[in-house]
Design a protein that fits this description.
6-phosphogluconate dehydrogenase C-terminal fold; alpha/beta; 3 domains; 11 strands; homodimer; Rossmann fold; 3-stranded mixed beta sheet
């Protein structure tokens, strides 16, 4: 099966590696404008052959993955469809879907979005297992070819991902909620806090770990995010307006000094957070373990090794140092009641009581 | 010097430990309603003596730290002032200041707020070095005794903290910006995302690492946060309203599809974030290193040990696993150009290219 990959970066490169490793008889053709980058992709084993021409690459192809940046996708996918054979499924990997899907009326096109790998970029970071266990959204329309959908679905499964068919509007609303809105709020938070820097006489704000956590994604790469914000602008604006309504209500309770309303609101957030984590993560409810440790590099190692030996895996962790950098609080997230209890015991044995 | 500590939990216990360790001739009297907890504090060396009576504890005291919960402080501080000798400085450790300071007209009272230790609670977590390098806000008024202010200042320095005198209003506005508003936004984010859980037919939202980072503080303990929200309600409402204005502007740019405005907004957030981090952290600009690693417990250890050997300290780190829990992206924050370059080399040598 010949598979074309247009744009061989982190995602395109990983698709190539996964296809070459997992799909019997796969031949992967990389398409791109940078000969250097295509050569690098070949060296890394992400593609079998390289091409600077779409037409040439798509000859005899059964599937084509358009992996360009979100803003370039409408044009890239249209060009791909123009060059692709009649029985070739064409998909993309962009993180917004509605606008792209609406712009194309072709039964060979099925929108896609693997939820993976946002933290790094470049074919150097590509890996065959990038999609292992990841959700891979697919947005078929009624006019989409069933045969081609099935082929794409099988490829996604072969890459180790979990295909989830979803309406393009729903997809964009979900992503606006869990990804784009958090980015917007992080941007607002840093800009609001930075305003204090320019006030002159006042002491500078000391941003603590909770602020750093809340703003880790602030000011994410404009080359990626400008396109995402614009492509999903209406859904993001909807989410912002809902957030504004919620915020206005909270501000009202605070101005009125309504303790019962404030407490009910905070409790329902605690409940919502728990439900989200439970829905999101397999392996049982996730436990959050908080401990205070000296901020020596060795401590992270010590804790990680102790849990590793006992086969307790750390779902997520943060180490937030105190201002002196000599101590800090470590938060570990462990999935499953038994694992969490085991972790609590082990960490206690190391001399760090879990709070 | 006799020092009374009213409420011997994480902060009160750490004050006791620090005073007994760092202040020559200090005798620390713990005051509280729970005899069990006072006995525990004595076992842990946090206090020399315990008392259930304020009057008895304050006899001959030179300084008193009121360490009750924010909501109980006005009453606790008033009672303390009533019982305290004429030359005793009385302070508190609450994370909001304006309301408390306004309610008390006594030259012996100086508001305080050590910025430390929010992640755990209880005297079990108390440590003598909790305040090492931490900012300790002090909110003297014009009527405050200079002599007593000097005494408190020296104690705070002896505890290893950095006293920062600040107007109570400014303090509350700063904290509203860098701590309380992030909590409010985290609550709003989780509740908005959880709404999707109840929509029925739609796929569940997959919350990724950026969502988890942004909402780590959501639904924080109501027993602590209800009081904070109420005590600083006006300043928090001000910050919320400013955030609402910023959000409304962004929503407008998105609805209009104004790419230039969206990009300028995102770029200024990136710039603001960089400025905040540089202002906040000593040791030079903070570099963010992103790498992809297998999600084996041993990997964190391997990276931490390699950096530890080279004396590169990790300011902050997160490990965000991919959906399959088999791999993940690790983000390390390293202060200083040289240290960051060294870290990049070392991590590269381990086989994990830094993105």
């Amino acid at each position: 099966m010949r598979i074309a990959v247009v744009g061989v970066g982190l995602i395109g490169g990983s698709i190539g590696l996964a296809a070459r490793e997992q799909v019997e008889g796969a031949e992967v053709i990389g398409v791109g404008r940078s000969r250097r980058r295509l050569e690098r992709a070949m060296e890394l084993g992400a593609i079998d052959r390289a091409s600077e021409s779409l037409e040439w690459a798509l000859e005899g192809a059964s599937a084509c993955f358009a992996c360009g940046p979100v803003g370039a996708l409408p044009e890239q996918v249209a060009a791909t469809l123009a060059a692709a054979p009649e029985d070739c499924v064409v998909t993309d990997v962009g993180s917004t879907k509605r606008r792209l899907v609406e712009s194309l009326a072709d039964e060979r096109f099925i929108g896609g979005h693997p939820v993976a790998g946002a933290e790094t970029s470049g074919v150097e970071h590509a890996r065959a297992d990038l999609f292992q266990g990841a959700v891979w959204y697919l947005t078929p329309l009624e006019r989409s070819s069933g045969l081609l959908y099935e082929r794409l679905h099988r490829l996604v499964v072969a890459f180790g991902a979990r295909p989830v068919a979803i309406d393009a509007n729903t997809h964009d609303r979900l992503l606006a909620t869990v990804s784009h809105l958090p980015h917007v709020l992080a941007n607002v938070l840093v800009s609001q806090a930075a305003r204090e820097l320019t006030r002159g006489d006042d002491p500078l704000p000391r941003v603590g770990p909770s602020f750093r956590d809340a703003t880790r994604v602030a000011g994410a790469s404009s080359s990626v995010w400008r396109d995402i914000y614009l492509a999903n602008g209406q859904a993001i604006a909807d989410e912002i307006e809902e957030a504004v309504a919620r915020l206005t209500e909270v501000a009202g309770s605070l101005r009125a000094g309504d303790g019962a309303a404030v407490e009910a609101w905070n409790e329902s957030a605690a409940d919502d957070r728990r439900r989200l984590l439970e829905a999101d993560l397999v392996g049982g409810p996730v436990h959050e373990l908080r401990l205070t440790v000296p901020n020596r590099p060795g401590i992270v190692a010590q804790v990680a090794l102790a849990l590793g030996k006992a086969d307790v895996n750390i779902v997520d962790m943060t180490l937030a140092p105190a201002a002196d950098m000599r101590s800090g609080s470590m938060t570990l997230w462990i999935a499953g009641d038994d694992q969490a209890a085991r972790a609590t015991d082990l960490i206690g044995e190391l001399g760090f009581p879990v709070g």
